[in-house]
Amino acid sequence: MNKSDITEKINVKKKRAAGVSILSNSFLIALKIVAGLVSGSISILSEALHSLVDLIASFLAFFSVMKSSEPADDDHPFGHGKYEDLAGFVEALLIIITAFYIVWLAAEKLIKFGAQYHFETDLGICIMLFSCVLNFIVSRYLFYTAKKTDSIALQTDAEHLSMDVYSSVAIFLGLLAVKFTGLYILDPIFAIIVAAIILRTGLSLTKKSANNLLDGALPTADKEEIKAILNNFKDRGVMGVKSVKTSKSGSKRVIQLTLYLPCKMELLDGHILCDDIEKSIEERFENVSVIIHAEPNCISEERANCTQCKKPNSAQKVKK
Asked: Where are the beta strands (DSSP E) in the chain?
């Protein structure tokens, strides 16, 4: 299977996963809004708002994987992978905004708690339990697909739904507590707990997506593997590594290497060597772009190790 076939297969998986997320979120939003309005529970309405943000995130993820799958063009010579990073960043900001809004709604309820505040719990308990199960299944599917395709947009979407599971569990337990204790003040308190969980996730995802947008380096483990691959080519002429620069654009890793090669190595041999290095890196990392710049070892600090520099060339021999 060639690189274009692999890329197309990855794109199909990402689009399918994003579509499933949109359908599940749309269905759950309708259920939670009905349950929240019928019961009058602030925590259920907050959860409905959370799911609405999840739906927006799902649309962003779907749009981003559609755009990122487009081939490179004159305006985007390095591809469209940054669309995924941008979508992930916007989704993370939406998570943070949602968390603060839920806190505001819950705090308003607590402040006005002197007024009569009662609601029906049975419907909310059933809806929250169903929401937990469905979101757990869909989030596991999204996490699996995000890992296989290395998609930051799908991972962010999966984190949205994963937090939905935790928040639904918290609200489910809160409704049970209200039902059996009659302490309705627990409803906004549990809503604030949910907001804290959401906020933590949003901050974490913002940092990760911003790192990709700002061309942050790949993880240390990935860079160590790259160096290990280069060490395997020392016996074929790689005499040193000047720099290893890495970044990420969507699901694509971008690796730029500057290597020292023997000064008398023929151009064809150097080209073949660089091709083999690229092939080895591509076999280790899926969806990767490798750029190699070769420099003669004579200009490096390791010039003393360049045995070919010590050999007189033919012109010098004739002069002697």
From this structure: 240-249, 252-261, 288-296
Output the CA–CA distances (angstroms, integers) from residue 27 to 18, 135, 156, in the order listed: 15, 11, 20
- Give the pLDDT mean for 213-239: 81
Specify the 3-state DSSP secondary structure of 179: helix
pLDDT confidence tier of residue 76, bands split at 50, 70 and 90: low
Whole-prediction pTM:
0.56
pLDDT for res 317: 43
Nearest CA among 181, 169, 175, 137 for reference residue 27: 137
Contacts of 252 (CB under 8 A, 6+ apart): 79, 81, 287, 288, 289
Cβ pair 171, 190 in contact under 8 A:
yes
User: What are the residues facing 240 on neighbouring strands?
Assistant: 260
Q: Residue 81 has what pLDDT? A: 62
Which tokens hold the place of 54?
A: 């999840």
**8-state DSSP, 72:** P
DSSP at 254: E
Contact in structure between 28 and 135 (CB atoms under 8 Å): yes
* Residues 102, 198 contacting (CB under 8 angstroms): yes
pLDDT tens digits, 123-159: 888 888 888 888 899 888 888 888 877 776 677 778 7
User: Which domains can be identified in the chain, with CATH numbers?
Assistant: 3-213 (1.20.1510.10), 220-319 (3.30.70.1350)
Residues forming beta bridges with residue 273, ordered by sequence position = none
Of 256, 183, 184, the C-alpha closest to 218 is 256
> Which residues are 261's β-sheet partners?
296
Is the predicted pLDDT of residue 36 greater than 60, yes or no?
yes
Sheet holding 240-249, edge to edge: 240-249, 252-261, 288-296
Residue with tokens 């691959």: 229
